[in-house]
Write a structure and sequence with these properties.
This protein is of the alpha/beta class. The chain is built from 14 helices and twelve strands. It binds pyridoxal-5'-phosphate.
């Protein structure tokens, strides 16, 4: 391992198929705004993979979550339960529509929503629950659904930003709730710069979702020949993804097996090469339960404490490799405190936030690069733990 070897960044988006040709085709084809031919192609792939009744491409996953929040018709006093350990917009989207938030702890095995804490938090004010499949590893979706069994009034909304093409007991992640939100931000498995999608599983939501998605108009129904002119019907926003970005996305989604295969190889190699070291030194690696098919979004290591985690981050960066930490617990943030309905205890989220380190992870990461990451990581970890 030489110190002069080229740096290994945390993430590198890559072209995997016909992205460039499709983008050019879109730019010269006469339809670059939303709801064009490539949007239909990308949405069809997502629909086929998840069984969604309708797929609306959006400018981001955040926008998709905001659209889902609008469809909930939240009233003053309503609350939404979100994981404490997640990206800000899993929570922000609902706060923006007026909900108060309840931050739910995560469970140590999957780092997804903890059904036991969920059961404690669930009261009559709750309108929605927003699980995340952290790292693309299915959360305890059965446990969550069991807690919600007698509450059909509570919407299950999967923030599936990490989980596309993963599954639980053969059922696709993103297929379990009333809505699921996808991200195509350039840090995710499938990218188009910035983009997202809202998957709808309840046919009763479709007409209104299309109106909200189309700036409050029934333009979509007009395009489908269902009405003979279109006009302002409801609230909404300009949620639609440009068809040129949908062209980029189509090129990516068509290569889903190739992309997921590459990411699986990266994940499996890290797991294989780090498992003995982790076992010997008390580190925790991602755990994949029987029945869980991960989406291979990332690879993380839980160090024994924050001091060793921070030391390893600094040491690896000094040696040209870019690992990174992840979410700061939402309950501890300024806005989290402001939008919380009441303070909640999230000890696991606080604990893992201080100890978690993510290794470089991207489609084109080579075996040689992986070997260097593992060598530098184990070296840095030994130094930090001694
Ligand atoms: C990336 C991410 C988002 C936001 O996605 P955008 O497309 O950037 O809006 C939301 N939730 C989770 C869990 C994410 O990882």
């Amino acid at each position: 391992m030489t110190e002069h070897a080229s740096p290994i960044p945390f993430n590198v988006p890559s072209l995997e198929g016909d992205e460039q040709a499709y983008v050019l085709e879109s730019m010269t084809g006469g339809h670059t705004s939303s709801a064009g031919p490539f949007s239909a192609r990308a949405a069809a792939i997502l629909q086929e993979a998840t069984g969604a009744e309708e797929v609306l491409l959006t400018t981001s996953c955040t926008a998709a979550l905001e659209l889902s929040a609008m469809l909930l018709d939240l009233k003053p006093g309503d609350t939404v339960i979100v994981p404490d350990f997640t990206f800000t917009t899993s929570a922000l989207a609902f706060a923006r529509q007026g909900a108060r938030l309840l931050f739910c702890d995560v469970e140590p095995e999957t780092l997804g929503l903890d059904p036991a804490h969920l059961a404690e938090l669930l009261d009559d004010s709750v309108r929605a629950v927003v699980p995340v499949h952290y790292a693309g590893i299915p959360c305890d979706i059965d446990g969550i659904r069991e807690v919600l069994r007698d509450r059909p009034d509570v919407a299950l909304i999967e923030d599936n930003a990490h989980g596309l093409f993963g599954s639980w007991n053969g059922l696709p992640l993103g297929s379990f709730g009333r809505f699921a939100a996808q991200s195509f931000h350039d840090t995710k498995n499938f990218v188009c710069g910035e983009g997202g999608a809202l998957l709808l599983h309840d046919p009763a939501d479709i007409d209104r979702a299309r109106v909200l998605h189309e700036k409050g108009t029934d333009r979509r129904a007009f395009m489908l020949g269902q009405v003979d002119k279109y006009s302002w019907r409801d609230t909404g926003s300009s949620f639609g993804l440009s068809d040129t970005l949908a062209a980029y996305l189509t090129g990516q989604l068509e290569k889903r097996d190739v992309i997921q295969g590459k990411r699986r190889a990266v994940f499996d190699r890290y797991l294989r090469d780090l498992a003995p070291f982790a076992a010997a030194h008390g580190l925790q690696l991602p755990q994949v339960r029987p029945g869980a098919q991960p989406a291979y979004h990332m690879f993380y290591v839980l160090m024994p404490d924050q001091t060793s985690r921070d030391a390893v981050l600094t040491d690896m960066r000094a040696r040209g490799i870019q690992p990174t930490f992840h979410y700061v617990p939402l309950h501890s943030s300024d806005a989290g405190r402001r939008f919380a309905d009441r303070p909640t205890e999230c000890p696991v989220s606080t604990d893992v936030s201080g100890r978690l380190l993510r290794l470089p992870f991207f489609n084109a990461l080579t075996a040689e690069q992986s070997d260097r990451v593992v060598a530098v990581f184990t070296d840095a970890a030994l130094a930090a733990l001694s």
